[in-house]
Design brief:
Blueprint: E1 3-7, E2 14-18, E3 40-41, H1 44-53, E4 58-63, H2 68-83, E5 89-94, H3 99-104, E6 112-117, E7 120-126, H4 131-138
Parallel strand pairs: 3-5, 4-5
Antiparallel strand pairs: 1-2, 4-6, 6-7
The chain binds zinc ion (ZN).
Length: about 140
Amino acid sequence: MAAKKLTCLECAQVNRVPEEKLAAAKCGTCGAKLVSTKAIEVDFATLQKAARNDELPLVVDFWAPWCGPCKMMGPEFARAAGTLSGKARLVKLNTEEHQKAGQVYGIRGIPTMVRFEGGKEKKRQSGAMRAADIVSWVG
Ligand code: ZN
C-alpha cells in the first residue's frame, strides 16, 4: 500500500501515513489528527514545511483580520474543508501575523487561495469564493 507524506499542522513533524489509514491517522510526535474536517490555522514555518513535503493537496487561504472579503469567505472555506476532508487539507494563514509568508509566496491581494501538491504550487486564485466553488476549484 502506498504511503503519503503529511506534515503535522500542530507540530510540523513530517509523517508517513498509509493511504487507507488517512482518515484516522495521528501524528507520531504529538498525537494530533493529521486529517481534519476543519480549516486549520498555520504559521509560516509549518506552511513552508507542508507545502514542500505533503503528498496530499494543500490548499492555503491567505487572509487577514482587517479584510472584509476574507471574513465573508471564512465560513465558506471552513465548509469546503469539511467536504474535501481526506482529499485535500485546507489551511489558513494570517498574513498580518506572518507577513514573511505573504512576501515569500508573493501574495498581492487577499483573500488568495494557493493549491500546493508534491512540493509545487499548482494554482492560485484571488477573491472571495463560495464553498461549492472552492470545492470545484480544488478539484
Ligand atoms: Zn504533531
